[in-house]
Design a protein that fits this description.
The complex is a heterodimer. Chain A is of the alpha/beta class. In chain A, 38% of the residues lie in helices and 14% in strands. Chain B is mostly helical. Chain B is 81% helix and 0% strand. Chain B has two helices and no strands. The longest helix of chain B has 26 residues. The chains are: A alpha/beta, B mainly alpha.
Chain lengths: 392, 48
């Protein structure tokens, strides 16, 4: 079946169990699918956009209320929805970072954090990981001191991953924020893999900004995300336009400069909103997700030669696994070479592992039912046993 | 379309084998029944 022309219907989620590392948390809820059907037209949420003509003031559909709810949920003062977490990084970096400023990132920062710094003219300096692929407060303190010696001033901003995209590890955010604040460095929490997945309390973590991804972790269409700030920083990051046309003398009301006026319209914002009640509920059941993650990880570890590169026991659903000592040994002689694993998984209705991967790869069990998690665990063990690997 | 979305959600929840339990079968039956009624209304109103 085709949507139109050469656009095939996407039915991977209906036919298979998808453990793709970046897709799991962004699968739409049925409520979001329905909202997308109803609000597919471009400016569909603007039917009742009244003065002062800004997205976060719209009451019907209840976008204004959604903004208030999001802020309260994250324990932050102000929130704006943005087209993806990257636009949140960009808004904050553009406000706080001046050309030539050192900016702290981590060895696990996403490329979009680096690009946001680059765009602002900042100079990135990374906090290294420890031997367990974790970012620690001690490492942050050491690195800040080094930067202070190098530049003669403190970094203008520190980015820290709540959960990183490479290992799915949870980092010492609260402790790192405490260290950063001792140097008066504002802290941005990259919550792309936590906001909408697990409970996030910006106040308790002591961060100045929380950035989240709608399409990665809030069961929302792409591109969507959010940037939340403390009261202290809201005025600067969400400053309104002051520009004036020299001939027409036009001014532009209360449009926010960093957001380029309105941000998410139509399916993106309404999808995020429609999923929000379910998202708010699912984060408090994160222990169920951890149980599924551990079930699948332990099944993989029961295959001789497999190692987990993420922290263990697992505390998140995104996991990086090293099967060089197991599935990759099979790939060396298998007629399908490295593609055998993906092929065998597909036969069992499991997709999302990068084709050809048998060495180091990632998977995400978020959102699976108990039966689906068990199915995935059994599939890995069966494939291993059928291909002569020892399974304990 | 919303009723079919509910069916779609059931397909996702039960992938890849689609072995529905008793409650899920009931949900599917209810949604399909309502969909049939809606189609009958559309047939009557649009086609006559």
């Amino acid at each position: 079946m085709k949507c139109s022309g050469d656009i095939e219907v996407r039915e991977v989620e209906e036919l298979s169990i998808n453990i793709d590392p970046i897709q799991a948390g962004g699968r739409l809820t049925p409520e979001a699918m329905k909202a997308c059907i109803a609000y597919g037209d471009g400016y569909s949420v603007c039917d009742y956009c009244l003065k002062p003509f800004r997205l976060d003031y719209i009451k019907k559909p209840p976008i204004a209320e959604f903004h208030r709810d999001l802020a309260e949920w994250l324990h932050m003062a102000e929130v704006r929805v943005v087209p993806g977490a990257r636009r949140g990084f960009q808004a904050v970096a553009s406000t706080l970072v001046e050309k030539g400023d050192p900016v702290m990132l981590t060895a696990l920062s996403h490329y979009t954090e680096f690009v946001a710094v680059e765009q602002s003219g900042g100079i990135p300096r990374e906090i290294p990981t420890d031997e367990h692929n974790r970012i620690t407060a001690d490492a942050a303190a050491d690195r800040i001191e080094e930067v202070l010696r190098e530049f003669g001033r403190t970094p203008s901003l520190l980015f820290v991953e709540h959960v990183d995209y490479q290992f799915g590890n949870i980092h010492e955010v609260k402790e790192i924020a405490r260290v950063a604040h001792q140097y008066d460095i504002p802290v941005l929490l990259n919550g792309a893999y936590s906001v909408g997945i697990m409970e996030v309390d910006g106040t308790a973590l002591g961060v100045d900004f929380v950035v989240g991804s709608g399409h990665k972790s809030m069961a929302a269409p792409a591109p969507s995300g959010l940037v939340a700030t403390t009261r202290e920083h809201a005025e600067s990051v969400f400053r309104t336009t002051k520009v004036k046309g020299d001939r027409t003398e036009r001014t532009f009301g209360i449009k926010e400069v960093e957001l380029m006026g309105c941000t998410l319209m139509g399916v993106t914002v309404v999808g995020m909103m429609a999923s929000f009640p379910a998202v708010r509920e699912r984060v408090v059941r994160f222990d169920r997700e951890i149980a599924h993650s551990r079930l699948v990880t332990d099944a993989l570890l029961s295959i001789e030669g497999t190692k987990v590169q993420s922290e263990y026991p697992r505390r998140h659903s995104l996991t990086r696994i090293d099967t060089r000592g197991s599935f990759d040994t099979v790939a060396k002689t298998h007629k399908k070479r490295g593609f055998f694993l993906q092929s065998e998984l597909k036969k069992r209705g499991v997709v999302g592992v990068i084709p050809g991967s048998t060495r180091v790869w990632k998977y995400n069990t978020y959102g699976l039912t108990d039966a689906q998690a068990q199915h995935v665990a059994d599939a890995f063990r069966e494939i291993a046993a059928e291909n002569g690997l020892e399974v304990t | 379309m919303f009723l079919l979305t509910d069916i779609r959600a059931l397909l996702r929840e039960t992938a890849p084998d689609h072995l529905l339990d008793a409650e899920q079968k009931q949900q599917a039956a209810r949604a399909l029944e309502k969909a049939k009624k809606q189609i009958a209304i559309l047939e009557k109103e649009l086609v006559g």
